[in-house]
Amino acid sequence: MTARTTFLDDRVRASLQAVGAAAKRGLGDAGLAELVQVRASQLNHCAFCLDLHLGIARKQGVSERQLDLLAAWEEAGDVFDARERAALALTEAVTVLTEGFVPDAVYEEAARHFGADGLAHLLALIATINAWNRLMVTRRIPAGSTEW
Hints:
This protein has 148 residues and is mainly alpha-helical. It has one domain (11-139): AhpD-like (Up-down Bundle). 69% of the residues lie in helices and 0% in strands. It holds the Pfam family CMD. InterPro entries: AhpD-like, AhpD_core, CMD-like. Residues 20-92 form the Carboxymuconolactone decarboxylase-like domain.
């Protein structure tokens, strides 16, 4: 596949990278941050972001078992703990917005596990990866591309 365009304003790129970095720092759990980004990228069919964040997840020590079962996390039993499941449920709800909103139960469960500060960073991370996914998919940036 050939990219439609690789142009992205440097200020836009830097701003999105800064938001993502701040959200990850604030979340304070690098492995969970990568699980969230991989799951959103799966849902959005973003090969570029999947390739990138799967590699980072492995470097952060996320287990191959978690990565293998991420697409079926709800059925994966104890592979994901309650905090991870809450984050993944929120990621799916924010990414897909099937009902037009994030269900109260999903939001409240995430808030219970993350508190106000952690939840704010988790939401910023989810929003940022969704922005990146949409930029990459729309421009058709292929996995592994060095020009984006």
